[in-house]
Amino acid sequence: MGKLTNKTALITGGARGIGRAYAHRLAELGANVGIIDLDLQSFKQFDAEAKAMTANSIIEELQCKGTHSAGAEADVTDFDQVSEAVSKIASELGDIDILVANAGGGAGGLGDSIASSMNLEMFKQVVERNLYGTVNSVTAVVPMMKKNRYGKIVTVSSQAGIQATPDGSYAHYGSAKAGIIMYTKYLAQDLGQFGINVNCIAPGYIGTGRLMGDFERMGIANIIKNIALKRIGTPEDCANAIEFLTTNLSDYVTGTVLDVGGGCIRGGNI
Ligand SMILES: NC(=O)c1ccc[n+]([C@@H]2O[C@H](COP(=O)([O-])OP(=O)(O)OC[C@H]3O[C@@H](n4cnc5c(N)ncnc54)[C@H](O)[C@@H]3O)[C@@H](O)[C@H]2O)c1
């Protein structure tokens, strides 16, 4: 019996990258796993992600492991789409006990979106994808958690939501991720009375198939000189934090931000 046997977890943005590592970890702990993604085959956009796949989708990978798993394509920026996807997954797997609101990301180049000359269209897009996407996902899932008086919600910020870049670039993403941290704290205050824990993780430089090539172009040595632990993080490092925040190990932890940045000091652009 795993720590999450008889629990149902939902991960947004779980078709590739760090979200896929969350899906595998929660499945290994015994949970049923639902995935919502804009594109359940988004791994095809990056060779390194596609190479890592052992089946045609994360859903198939989990099913091969014997996990009860279901997926739905939906855009988290649209509440109606998320809500419909949540209902579909809950009807297949049962009420959602665990939500990891992971879908997100920036837009444009790392040197773009300087705070004082923001591309306003891009700002809107990134705030919608990250902050609205998180709020929409929580709002769709929380009625079943309140009804069951149980839930573990993990939101996903970034070191960029805690520390500014030295040159003020990528401010759209940092602002959206900072908003997620404060939303998490309000949500924890609101939902504690229902037996629902709400926490946030703030990854630093994590070497996914999407980003590892960029890190290599930027120079790994340049990046790790600003990281206390002197290495790029892995999706599994993030999954370790998710394991803590979704199991009974964190039953008396709520409203916190768990830093998974290896002691990175500059914030960086991600
Ligand atoms: N990789 C890092 O170094 C890093 C660092 C800090 C924070 N993060 C955060 O962690 C999360 C996962 O990062 P990643 O590197 O695995 O990203 P990724 O781009 O590799 O994967 C994101 C997944 O989310 C999906 N997605 C994107 N927009 C969506 C939408 N509107 N609706 C539904 N699904 C959507 C994509 O299709 C993709 O499958 C993101 O929130 C990201 O901001 C990542």
Tell me about this structure.
It is a single chain. The protein is of the alpha/beta class. The chain has one domain: Rossmann fold (3-Layer(aba) Sandwich), CATH 3.40.50. The chain starts with 7 loop residues before the first strand and ends in a 10-residue tail after the last strand. The model has no long low-confidence stretch (mean pLDDT 96). Nicotinamide-adenine-dinucleotide (NAD) binds next to helix 1 and helix 5.
Key terms:
270 residues, alpha/beta, Rossmann fold, seven-stranded parallel β-sheet, 7 strands, binds nicotinamide-adenine-dinucleotide
Order of helices and strands: EHEHHEHEHEHEHHHE
* Poorly predicted segments: none
CATH C-level class is: Alpha Beta
Q: How many H/I helical runs?
A: 9
Helix content: 40-55%
Q: Could you outline the blueprint of secondary structure elements for this entry?
A:
Layout: E1 8-12, H1 17-28, E2 32-37, H2 47-52, H3 58-64, E3 69-73, H4 79-93, E4 98-101, H5 120-148, E5 151-156, H6 171-191, E6 196-203, H7 212-218, H8 220-224, H9 235-246, E7 257-260
Parallel strand pairs: 1-2, 1-4, 2-3, 4-5, 5-6, 6-7
This protein binds nicotinamide-adenine-dinucleotide.
Residues 12-13, 15-19, 37-39, 42, 75-77, 102-105, 129, 133, 156, 158, 203, 205-206, 208, 210-211, 270 line the site of nicotinamide-adenine-dinucleotide.
